[in-house]
Amino acid sequence: SLDRLPCVRSEDCIQDFAISMTDCLLVTLLGLLLFCCLPNPSCAAFSSSLEGVRCSANHAFATTQLAMSGRQDQVKDFMTKPCFSVTPEMSLDDAAKFLVGKKIAGAPVVDREGGKVVGVISQFDFLCKEAGAVALDLASPTYRQDVKKIMSNKVQTSMTPNPITVVETSTMQASASIMIKNKLNRLPVVDSEGKLVGLLSSSDVMRHLVSDM
Predict the structure, then answer these.
(1) Which residues pair with 82 in a beta bridge?
(2) Sheet holding 160-161: strands in order across?
(3) DSSP per residue, the chain
(4) In terms of DSSP bridges, do strands 196-201 and 160-161 run parallel, antiparallel, or are they unpaired?
(5) pLDDT of residue 61
(6) What residues are paired with 91 via a beta bridge?
(7) Residue 208: left (phi > 0), alpha (psi -120 to 50), or beta?
């Protein structure tokens, strides 16, 4: 009868899942250790395999942490708002002075008329401008775009267009994963119309991590 069936608590399911994911993480880390011990880790196949192991380890660890905490905190609770932004028409000199004055390393580029995010500009863009032709790589698929950045005096041609964004209801875990995969330090937060409502930085992610402890 149904009365004889064991009662399974949701907490037990979460704990069992967390243990399973922890085992998966340990196996993945063991594979990473074996890869690191191989001689001459310089070939493309090795680099690709090693990167795959690292991504698997990161994913397993993040999933285990989520299962253990049971939290799904949203970006809107940890993002920086209001945040500073620049316009496409602004000169690079003015943009540099603005960023230095605000003591920030980068900012979203917002269309003055519609308020939509059209790009991002960071310290790296100014480094390209400063380095000039010395930083150019003739074999790079972005060679022409890099030349334009070096020759440009406007934010519009120096910025990174069509940036990756998140919405306020995005989870912190998903947003952190996007940062890792795309090697980003900040993500513009937009509403349903693509208008800037905040900025999620790596520092904000750290605040979220501390709040979990």
Answers:
(1) none
(2) 106-110, 117-122, 160-161
(3) -GGGSPP--HHHHHHHHHHHHHHHHHHHHHHHHHHHHSS-TTSHHHHHHHHHHHHHHHHHHHHHHHHHH----BGGGTSBSS---B-TTSBHHHHHHHHHHHT-SEEEEE-TTT-BEEEEEEHHHHHHHHHGGGG--TT-TTHHHHHHHHH--BHHHHSEES---EETTSBHHHHHHHHHHHT-SEEEEE-TTSBEEEEEEHHHHHHHHHHT-
(4) unpaired
(5) 53
(6) 154
(7) alpha
Tokens of 195: 């208008």
Distance of CA 185 to the CA centre of its chain: 6
**In sequence order, which residues have a C-beta less than 8 Å from that of residue 38 and are 6 or more positions away?**
46
List per-residue pLDDT tens for the chain, 213 residues long.
Answer: 434 444 444 444 444 544 455 555 555 555 554 445 444 444 444 444 445 545 445 544 554 454 455 467 999 999 999 899 999 999 988 999 999 999 998 999 999 888 899 999 988 888 877 776 676 676 777 667 767 777 778 999 889 999 999 999 999 999 999 999 999 999 999 999 999 999 999 999 998 888 866
In contact, 202 and 186? CB cutoff 8 Å: yes
Ramachandran sector of residue 91 (left: φ over 0; alpha: ψ -120 to 50; beta: rest): beta
Q: Can you read off the two tokens belonging to residue 65? A: 């942490």
Q: How far is CA 192 from CA 37, 168, 195, in A?
A: 48, 9, 7
Q: Which residues touch 41 (CB under 8 Å, ≥6 apart)?
A: 35, 47, 50
